[in-house]
Design brief:
- This protein has about 100 residues and is an alpha+beta fold.
- It is built from four helices and three strands; from the N terminus they run E-H-H-E-H-E-H.
- It has a three-stranded antiparallel β-sheet, sandwiched between helices.
């Protein structure tokens, strides 16, 4: 699982001290950029991935030791697809289902 974590305290610097609406816009855009990079990497390596917004943010934040200004926006789940060939499966370690 690869969490996308926003640093809400840093966003106002990007927006020139903009509104909370601007902050949400930048957090959403950053999360989209991160997610797209994860998808592109997984596609290039023959891995499957899906981005999930439905995660236990509080438990995950605690496990990762996040500070209050750090927020989990979404998580990318990555792994070897079920339909992968035997040869490809031997070349990559299997990732446990989460």
């Amino acid at each position: 699982m690869l969490p996308s974590i926003s640093f809400s305290s840093r966003i106002p610097a990007k927006t020139g001290g903009g509104s909370s609406e601007d902050t949400l816009l930048y957090i959403g855009a950053d999360t989209g950029f991160i997610s797209q990079n994860i998808y592109l990497f997984c596609a290039s390596e023959g891995l499957a991935t899906v981005v999930r917004a439905s995660v236990d943010r509080a438990a995950l934040a605690k496990a990762l030791g996040l500070r209050p200004e750090q927020r989990i926006v979404a998580c990318a789940i990555c792994g070897v697809p079920e339909t992968v060939s035997c040869r490809a499966a031997m070349l990559r370690p299997k990732i446990a289902s989460l």
